[in-house]
C-alpha cells in the first residue's frame, strides 16, 4: 500500500506544531467575556475550551488575556461545542509571546480527559 502525504490527497495540513497546555484565561469580544482554558497552542493560534456561552462569529476579532501569555489578539476561525479556534493576527505580538512561553515556562502535560 502506498503512502500519500496529506497535501497530495488534498487534505489541509497545519503549518505550526501544536502543543497541549492548561493555561486559564478570558476571551473578550465587544462587551462579552468568557473564562476558558487554552488546551492547544502554537505559534499561529490556539484552541480554547469555554466555561460559558460565547457568541462570536467566524472572522470576529477577539482578545485573550492570560497571566502566562499576556494579551493575545486573534480572529475566530471556528467554533464547535464550547470550543473556539483562534488564529493570531499577523501584526500582533502573539507569536513572540507564545515562543517565549514555550522557551521559559511550558511543561509538557498529558490530557486528563479526552473528548
Automatic annotation (TrEMBL):
Gene3D superfamilies assigned to the protein according to its UniProt record, in alphabetical order: predicted glycosyltransferase like domains (2.40.10.220)
A Pfam family of this chain: PilZ
Coiled coil regions in record: none
Limits of the PilZ domain: 13-98
InterPro entries named in the record: PilZ_domain
UniProt GO molecular function: cyclic-di-GMP binding
Protein name: PilZ domain-containing protein
Organism, scientific name: Endobacterium cereale
Lineage: Bacteria, Pseudomonadati, Pseudomonadota, Alphaproteobacteria, Hyphomicrobiales
